[in-house]
Amino acid sequence: DAKTTQPNSMESNEEEPVHLPCNHSTISGTDYIHWYRQLPSQGPEYVIHGLTSNVNNRMASLAIAEDRKSSTLILHRATLRDAAVYYCIPSGDNYGQNFVFGPGTRLSVLP
Amino acid sequence: NAGVTQTPKFQVLKTGQSMTLQCAQDMNHNSMYWYRQDPGMGLRLIYYSASEGTTDKGEVPNGYNVSRLNKREFSLRLESAAPSQTSVYFCASSEVLRQLNEKLFFGSGTQLSVL
């Protein structure tokens, strides 16, 4: 299973962009890179995922390095509601066992 | 849409008591999962069910049993609760069993305290 490294915490000002990094140097060629976030007192929610190309949706953008050993989740304009723990999860084909939520990055958004 | 519904939201047990956490999804998903989350940590998979009628162990199954009652419902049972099982429990579902690009949908959790 691919191991990930994320900063324990990050801070951002409201309405500024936020770049959340993730290293996954042991990722396999078929693993997708998923990002979930967990708001306080809630279950995790899906944010975005990708394989090789950069991806955009209404919540965020995902930039994937050419060698796929790292990725960056981009929140274009942080809001107070974006304060959460963000999890980067490479997902392979070891069904059930391998979708591992590590400690993630706790993002604080300052008004 | 309700999505994934968990009951109860809070529960306090005494050591040795038993209880069942309930989970239901209304998205017609085939696969369902139970996770636990301890303070300051990520989620750990307890059990999962690829489809109705099947269940498999995850990373931390000891002390738990599960039942996939039907396609909608997946319950988690603690037969003899221990303080080490104090945690927040999350149920999740997905359309199929963790395909490479599948999404998980989570419930809002059950806060369980075992005294």
Short overview:
Chain A is mostly beta strands and 111 residues long.
- The percent range for strand residues of chain B is over 45%
Distance between the termini of chain A: 38 Å
- Give the biggest sheet of chain B: 7 strands, mixed
Label the structural class of chain B: mainly beta
**What Rg of chain B is obtained from the alpha carbons, in whole angstroms?**
13 Å
Helix content of chain B: under 10%
Instruction: Quote the average pLDDT of chain A.
Output: 89
Query: Count the strands of chain B?
Result: 11
Low-confidence stretches of chain A: none
Overall number of strands of chain A? 9
- Sheet with the most strands, sense and barrel status of chain A: 5 strands, mixed
Strand content of chain A is over 45%
Distance between the termini of chain B: 35 Å
Structural commentary:
The complex is a heterodimer of chains A (111) and B (115). Chain A is an all-beta fold and 111 residues long. Helix content of chain A is 0%, strand content 45%. Chain A is built from no helices and nine strands. Chain A has a five-stranded mixed β-sheet, with no helix packed on it. A four-stranded antiparallel β-sheet of chain A has the order 2-7-6-5, with no helix packed on it. In chain B, the strands form two sheets. In chain B, strands 2, 4, 5, 6, 9, 10 and 11 form a seven-stranded mixed β-sheet that branches. Chain B has a four-stranded antiparallel β-sheet with strand order 1-3-8-7, with no helix packed on it. Chain B is globular and about 40 Å long. Chain B starts with a strand and ends with a strand. The mean pLDDT of chain B is 92. At the A-B interface, β4 of A face β5 and β10 of B.
